[in-house]
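ubiquitinyl hydrolase 1
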Amino acid sequence: MQSDSSSSIKRSASEGPSSATPIPIMTDPISSVDSAREQDIEIDAYMAEQGEDISTQPASLTIEQKVARIKYLRDKSMVAGDTWYIVSRQWFRPWEIACGILSDKSLESLQEKDIGPPDNSSLFDSQGNLTSNLVEHIDVEFLPEEAWSELVAWYGQPIRPLPRSVIAKAFLQTALELRPPRLKVLVLKDLGPDADIAGPAHAYVTVSIKDPMKTLFKALVSAVTALSNVPYRIWKIEPGEFSGSHFPASKLASWGAELVSEGTDKTVEDNMIEPEDPFVVEFQENGAWIVDASQVVRAPPPSAVHVPPPHYSNDNDFFSRLSNQRTSAFQNSQHFRTPSPSRRGSSSKAKESSVTPFKSFGFSKGSSKIIQEPGTLGLGNMGNTCFMNSALQCLAHTKELTDYFLSGVYQEELNPDNPLGMHGAIAEAFGLLLHRIWARDSTSTSYSPREFKSQLQRFAPQFSGYQQHDSQELVAFLLDGLHEDLNRVLKKPYVEKPDWEGGGDLELAKLAQTSWDGYMKRNDSVIVDLFQGQYQSTLVCPECEKVSITFDPFMYLTLPLPVNKKWWHVIHYVPWDPSILHKKVPVEISRDSSFRDLKNLLGRWMGVKPKKLLTIEVFNHRFYKNLDDSILCGDMADNDQIFCFELPCNSRQSRSYKPKDNDPFIVPVILTDVVPPRPAYSHYSRLTNNFGFPFIVVIERDQAVSVNDMYDAVIERLQRWTVRDRDLYTWQTDPSPSGAVTIPISTVSPIDSVAEIKENGDVNEVDGMIIEGDIADEKIFGEDDSGTEPGAYVVGTKQGVFTLRLYTGYKDYVAGGNGSSNGRSEQWETRTEDTESGAPLLKEGDAFLCEFDENMKAYYFGASQFENSLWDAWVPFLHLEYLEAKEVAAAQKSKGITLDDCLTEFTKEEQLGEDDLWYCPRCKKHQQATKKFDLWKVPDILAVHLKRFSNSRTLRDKIDTFVDFPIEGLDLTGLVGERRAGTRLAQSGANINELGIRDVEEPLIYDLYAVDEHLGGLGGGHYRAYALNHATEQWYHFDDSYVTRSDASHAVNSNAYLLFYRRRSNAPLGGKTNEKIEEAGRKAATEAEEENAVEPEAQLPTPPSESDATPFPFPSTQPSNAGYLTPQSNTRSTPTSSPPPLDDGDPTMLEAQSDDLIAEDGLTLGPLELASHQFDFPNPSGGASPTSSVEVEPDYDDDPSRTSLFRAHANIDSWVGSSQNGLPSPAVSDPDTNPFSDMNSQKKSADDSMDV
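Tokens:
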């Protein structure tokens, strides 16, 4: 550690420009010191010019000045472009403790001289990678550059410094870029036609996502050469692992190389550059480039691309195992053709839209690549984007939502002028992504959704960069963003919320319908049609029993987990009455309970009002932390010593308590040895040697005017803790006590003998027993007092037992933060002089220190063993309620948790907390009302959020408990208030259709179709998804780019986080949205028929080998009177609404390649018929495993240069079409405007097939 003398500006200035920055002195709390330091710099500069020695260091700062300095600098706001530093809490917290900012029981002896240089080693793993947890105030602290420079100057050169740029994230919002992209740098070499990558290990550069491309170029070149005058250019190649830094020129084409333009104002983020992206720097040799850029043809990357192993690898885990076999998921199964999930076309408005959906690419018979089943596209991890990928897969497999986007209806409903929306950008990006996922002739196994992420972070800055986020937060934002982008309400009117005026089912249903109608006047979209339901919230005033009912919409259902997360502790209970022994009380209460709840429990057990109980933590013989009503029990450690003192007055630990003028003083008392006198120049008290337990004394205001009266009050409390309590008082015996003068004292414990003080000063021990009474009783010994001498009585408290010292600075009974000091002493004479005559001598924040000399301490409490103390004389107290709770907990431990239990917990009535009061309009004041949530209306698509994460003040926890939820048959009929009320109203003859209640006979049963799961802990971990492919009725497991066939039962596990359910119904789901989709389908079919009638031979451009091509199936548009089974019901549809099914079976891929009739007419099976086929699927345990959630995966996108093979006469692309038949898919677009053009797509060679 550096000595204090090194903490000068001279040292800082010598270490870099950042340290030499002048220190602000206008508002700095130690501005005088800074001014002196600046003068030192000026003097030193002058002396240096004269050749003088300037090695002498100025005076160092005190600890208090250092603390004030860092605090002042940390209070500055972040400004875009500034540099801040990340500091590990494992280093910063000991510094705070050493400086007295914090107190820690395990680091009591830590001093500033023990603090080493700033060290961030704990933030890196064994491979040198930054850990995923960088939560401020928990894992790290953020310091401005000036503060960091000060710490370096004081404590030495840092270990693994982490400078980070402040970036602008939104309007007037800034944030620290915690994870700037780290990029790989290689050098282009002419090593021969067959050379491999060679040379030393490649370098890395780290840049900000907001840096311009020029900055990136400079960083890349500087990483590989010190020369600055050699012409260069930069190539970007496909991601991968590289064994060296010398990249052969002959491999540029095979690695999909692209020249990167420097002359642009775009940033790294604008160019969608991701972490771990590789760049190759080419320098001119002899005035010429090594390669001819025009000859570098972009091609798929080689099959040797190495994918990092999974972050959560487990040999026993079937979906987390790495596979050494790189075979197609369908090589061992029958090849089949999957129909398009919808037969609907696009409207004319969709044709005119500037949006260019994903292009459908052809597949030739001679190609070695295999067409992937629609909906099985993996999403590449771009660096901690697994949270986004899993959420997108769940939403992409929501059939009704997919139908809406792939039919092109969304383009008709874009609302770019909605001020609450995102100008339609999120809806367009999501629509393009769905076209990519559900492409019917794609050979890609994975795709990195860069365009979607770019739009996402543009409108949701909290998701920018490459940090891990909550998947549920993304789902909530995306659904809300899609709703506003597609809101059919162009101008939102003002709608007043109705009030509940009482009544029965009819009035309740009317209120609910009025609330829903008012909401729909401002909100009407596909998201409302599919995802939104309605809560019923009921508040009841505990005083006047006023009932308030409101109805609010919800988009997802957040369910608490009824896990018995109990907090078990032993409470040291101290009654106010000294004659009642103190107790050790074991308690068991919910971890989420506050100390207010704990005091309610103890008050009930002890027969005391909870407001008269004071809870406080004791450590190192002093009060350590005030445990007021807002503190959570779960915040306390298992070995914390918690005391609960009974008081004769309000403990004033509730934030709602309003102080009164006549409130007594609640004063902490600390026992200590005699404190050595402090030096006259010191402003702070000397450290004391405390012993025993601290306690509480209550001083009435009339007592506070006299030091002697306060001394007596302390004696009264002290008698509980010593076996020689009788000797705390002065006794006298008199045969005729009638004339004696007695003093009023409170109850004194029974004793076996009393001390008789004789005239000559001798002390005579006599037997006796004190008679108990109230505080005004006279304590006299009579003839009947257990054999004591007649007339023994208390004259007063014994003086000189200890010296009563006054200390200040005890805010909330604690001094120096968390009891880290004894505050500041003050003489009674000084306090008396500063106080008006007759006024109380005490102030808020005062404390008493009782100084015992060695003899008095030994007499009353014992010597080293404290044999005369009662500090260990705690009586065990086991309440029947506690014993019963232990039995119930043991029984519940063997019972699992179901989704029904979570729903029951959600609808359970609870009382509002003191910080969340409700204003009762009848009582005209805030009340702790009881609140209850109920489900009134449920949506067609029910998204359930299992609340697994809790984040209290100091506790960060994830509940990994297994929740059993049904795959099929989740019945909510009995929980939905609208259905119950509607049934009763229908039975009474009311017209429920007028109330918006329909189909009360149909049960509300839901089936699972997707699960978003989270592995790991809070702030990190990894997300994956299970989803049902609605076209084939096959379940899949999505682990970023790895996709494997699975089973629905595998989704039911302890990692399940978000559940997606679809309601069973005899009618199509989606209401108004479904009508628009069907209308779009009919319109597209009519347009196709008209086009065929005019140009029967017209067809799309096809390659020369069309006759040998393998066509992907497409729906027929020929009319039929038979009708066919729809996916939503078992009834047959009308010929005008949907095309008929085919009579023949589903051909294999091999048959399709040689069946000209099928290729001509485009016949196919419907989704249900296709789903009835049985296929031999590979075992999921043999599938490939995911990469780490913190790494970037290579993008194995296919070459989109092939043309479509489908003919125009048969509504080929009713979901994913081409521009030639007027459907919302592009044919060819400019690469600068088409995000899915060759320039922006990644490639993968044919022999690099990946398991899905």
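The mean pLDDT is 74.
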